[in-house]
Amino acid sequence: MEAPLDDQESLGAGLKPGDAHYRAYVGPPEDYDLIAAMTFNLLTTLGLRQHHSLLDIGCGSLRIGRLLIPYLNRGKYFGVEPNEWLVEQGIKRELGRALLEIKRPTFFFSDSPETIAQAKVPFDFALAQSIFSHCGLDLIKNWLSAMSHAIAENGALVATFLPGEEDSPQRGWVYPEYVKYRPATLRRVAAEASLRFELLDWGHPQQKWAIFAGPKFDSGWFKNRPLTWNSGLRKSSAKTKWEMPLQQRLRLVPTFGTVKAISMMKADCDRSITMNFWMTRRFEKLMREAFARQAMIIDGTGGFMSACGRLPALRASKVIL
Ligand SMILES: C[S@@+](CC[C@H](N)C(=O)[O-])C[C@H]1O[C@@H](n2cnc3c(N)ncnc32)[C@H](O)[C@@H]1O
């Protein structure tokens, strides 16, 4: 039996971009999920963490907001959107009111870049997905100028655009039609706003990804290496390791032995392993009866808590080479 009409999910299948349906209005409805996944993965690969503040420019029907709002800590998501009905539909059909209550995002119903000054927090990340592909250069300059005051020095605006041989001459908001720009033009207007324009090697079904970075945003780790989750994680683990205070390091000098649970660690003597407090205590106890003459245990990351339920889990995930 078919579900009653009210219970059916309306995904806007077959509608065109710009049509008056909350999914279709913001782009091809069949890509609604894909755009969300692509963008969330990019932001987290670039280093977005739960404690960061994020501004979603032209957040529409919360296509990406429905992933970002649950992920970020309470009060850390900010959206700007002139079409209030889109946000309302996004809450009703995608996010749910309960999450709104739990996470308390802030929305500015405006098309004015000046509005974001009201947020009064420096943004670690900002997002403009399919926004600059609809902005005249005058409007892009206004957004970049506002962003140069609103993002943290080590923050970045992550944006899409359509590259072209020539710069589109239109002004203001152009929708649902598109505008195109030469990357050199965007680099110039970014520099005028004291932002660093860099192209990103991250796929998009129609557009190109770029960052407009603050002066201290670290993009060096993916300059000559692929922008992947693995290289991002390696970079942040290395940082955690070196940032740890010295007093949290313990040097254990156990004698040779054979405790089954840690036998895999033998191969990694002389290297560092990172573990949380609970694991350090447990490991210390085992090490007293066990092996590994020169293993050094670095305590205090906390970040591996969930993976440390049982000692054997250590084998695969904790060894930092
Ligand atoms: C192509 S949609 C993209 C929506 C959203 N970023 C996403 O990826 O799902 C463009 C959005 O920008 C909003 N918008 C309209 N005028 C704008 C302006 N002047 N500045 C920024 N966004 C604007 C539209 O209402 C619409 O929600």
What does this structure look like?
The longest helix has 15 residues. This protein is globular. The chain has two domains: 221 residues, 3-Layer(aba) Sandwich (Rossmann fold), CATH 3.40.50.150; 77 residues, no CATH class. Helix 2 links the parallel strand 1 and strand 2. The protein is built from nine helices and eleven strands. With 321 residues, it is of the alpha/beta class. Strands 3-2-1-4-5-7-6 form a seven-stranded mixed β-sheet, with helices on both faces. It has a four-stranded mixed β-sheet with strand order 8-10-9-11. Bound molecules: S-adenosylmethionine (SAM). The site of S-adenosylmethionine has 19 residues, from loops.
The hetero molecules present are: S-adenosylmethionine
Low-pLDDT runs of 5+ residues are 241-274, 289-321
Mean pLDDT equals 80
The number of distinct structural domains comes to: 2
Largest sheet: 7 strands, mixed
Return the string of H and E elements. HEHEHHEEHEHEEHEEHEHE
Name the CATH class of the largest domain: Alpha Beta
Report helical residue fraction: 25-40%
Ends: how far apart? Answer: 57 Å
User: In order across it, which strands form the biggest sheet?
Assistant: 3-2-1-4-5-7-6
Number of E strands = 11
| CATH fold-level assignment of the largest domain | Rossmann fold
Number of helices: 9
Strand content: 15-25%
Radius of gyration: 24 Å
> How would you classify the helix and strand content by structural class?
alpha/beta
Write out the CATH superfamily name of the largest domain. Answer: Vaccinia Virus protein VP39
If classified by CATH, what would the architecture of the largest domain be?
3-Layer(aba) Sandwich
Basic shape: globular
